[in-house]
Design a protein that fits this description.
236 residues, mainly beta, ten-stranded mixed beta sheet, nine-stranded parallel beta sheet, 19 strands, 29% strand
Length: 236
């Protein structure tokens, strides 16, 4: 694919590159989904100051996510999933206050979920599953009042309780399965009446479940709560 990225064709016509009609020759979208790319991402990506959408999903990128991405203040969609990015979850992305979608699923990121993610006030979707994350889910994520999708499953070493503050969001898809989460399911989550996918299975959660889960979640499509330590009956 990159063989066609040469001077014989204007870069706005290169595969995966979409330029602004209003701002001539300014790249707005870089969509390299499943192009079989290998290597690290150049720090020169920080020169794409008009970039709104960055999709590198399903390639073989490795190394750290360039800190220069944090200077792309117009970014709304960042999808780096299904690669081999390493290092910590990049806190520099929190400077991109316009981000709606942040998808880092299926990489080799490690460390804690940054509390700073709670400052991305316009965030709708946050995907962190299938990394090597540790520690607790920060209560600051409850500040994401527009959040509808949150996944941090199969990180294995996430621990502690599920923050009560998540009930202040608009989550309708939550997947925290296959971790080491403890404590009870926060009652505040049962207030998320638009919940459709509720996956908290394969943790160490305990206590009793809401007797009125079917009433609390009238739109529920899929439920996974198995392999925990719940007691007592519940109904759907």
């Amino acid at each position: 694919m990159l063989s066609s990225w040469n001077d014989s064709l204007h870069f706005c016509r290169w595969p995966g590159v979409h330029c602004s009609r209003r701002h001539v020759h300014r790249v707005m979208i870089l969509d390299l989904f499943s192009y079989g790319l290998v290597g690290s991402v150049s720090p020169h990506i920080g020169n794409l100051t008009f970039l709104k959408t960055l999709v590198l999903q399903n390639n073989s990128f490795h190394g750290k996510v360039p800190s220069e991405i944090g200077g792309l203040f117009r970014l709304r969609v960042v999808d780096l999933s299904n690669n081999s990015f390493e290092g910590m979850v990049p806190t520099n992305l929190t400077y991109c206050s316009e981000i709606r979608i942040l998808n880092l699923i299926d990489n080799k990121l490690e460390g804690k979920i940054p509390e700073e993610l709670g400052s991305l006030s316009k965030l709708i979707g946050l995907g962190l599953s299938k990394n090597n994350l540790i520690g607790k889910i920060p209560a600051s994520l409850g500040n994401l009042s527009s959040l509808t999708t949150f996944s941090a499953a199969e990180s294995i070493n996430l621990e502690g309780s599920i923050p009560e503050e998540l009930g202040r969001t608009r989550i309708n898809f939550i997947n925290l399965s296959f971790n080491r989460l403890t404590g009870t399911i926060p009652y505040s989550l049962y207030n998320l009446s638009n919940m459709r996918y509720f996956f908290l299975g394969a943790n160490q959660l305990d206590g009793s479940l809401s007797q009125d889960m079917g009433v609390a979640f009238p739109h529920l499509s899929e439920l996974f709560l198995g392999a925990n330590r719940f007691i007592g009956p519940y109904s759907l």
